[in-house]
C-alpha cells in the first residue's frame, strides 16, 4: 500500500474510534516516548514483545505511542551513536543490546545507561536509575493518574560534569558516565558483601555527585526514599533530553491530557485529538 494511503487510513481509523466514543482499556498504560535530543536516539525496552520488538529509532522531535500490557514490569533506556544495517544488526556507542536493533533477548543495555524502570499494577512503581551509570538525560512524567505521581528522572547532562575517571569517550568526546561500581568494582561502591544492606551501604563521593545533579534519580542501590515513586491509573510520558518541568501531552479516553506548571489540564474535543494523532501516526509510519 502507498505510504500516504497508510497514513490516511490510520488517521481515518483514529477519527472513527474517537467519533464512536471507543475507550482504551482502563487497565492498560499508554507510554509516549519523545526524543528531545539534538540527534537520533534508539530507545530500547525490555521485555519488548509488546513494544515494537523492544527497539527502534527516533529522530529529533519525533515521538511514538505504545500500550503497555496489564501487569507489565520492565525498563526503558536510550541508545546513542548507533549504526544498524537493513537487517537490524549493528553497534551503538552507549546502551547497546548486543548487536541487535531489537532488545528482546537483553535484560538491559550495556553499561553505562540511564534506566527508566516500571512495575505496573493497581499501584504503579516507577523510577529512573543511574546505578548502572548515565548516558542520556531522561524524565518520566505520569499524566492523568492518582496519588503521589511525581516526576522521576535526570534532566541534567552528566556527560559534561562526569569525573574523568568515570568518563567514557569516543573520538575525544564524553558520551557516557560510568558508575563507580562499574569502574572500581569494590564492595563499598557496589553495595555487596558487608555493604550489602541499606544500613552499611551509604552514599559515596561519586553517588553524591550523581544525586546533586539528579535529585529524583537513583544514585546508588539503596537510594530508595527520594528515588522511587508511585501512582495509580496513570499514563507515562518518557522524554529524552528535556527539562523535568517541560509540559507534555498524551491522548487517553477521548481526551488530550497535558501537564503544566499549574497541574493537569484536559483539552477535550475530537479536533484536539486529531491534532495530536496525525503527527504521531506520521512518526509511526516513518519508524516502521
UniProtKB/TrEMBL annotation:
It comes from Liquidambar formosana (Formosan gum). PANTHER family: OS03G0233200 PROTEIN. This is Thaumatin-like protein. Residues 1-27 form the signal peptide. Belongs to the thaumatin family. The chain crosses the membrane at residues 271-287. It comes from the Eukaryota. InterPro entries: Osmotin/thaumatin-like_sf, Thaumatin. It holds the Pfam family Thaumatin.
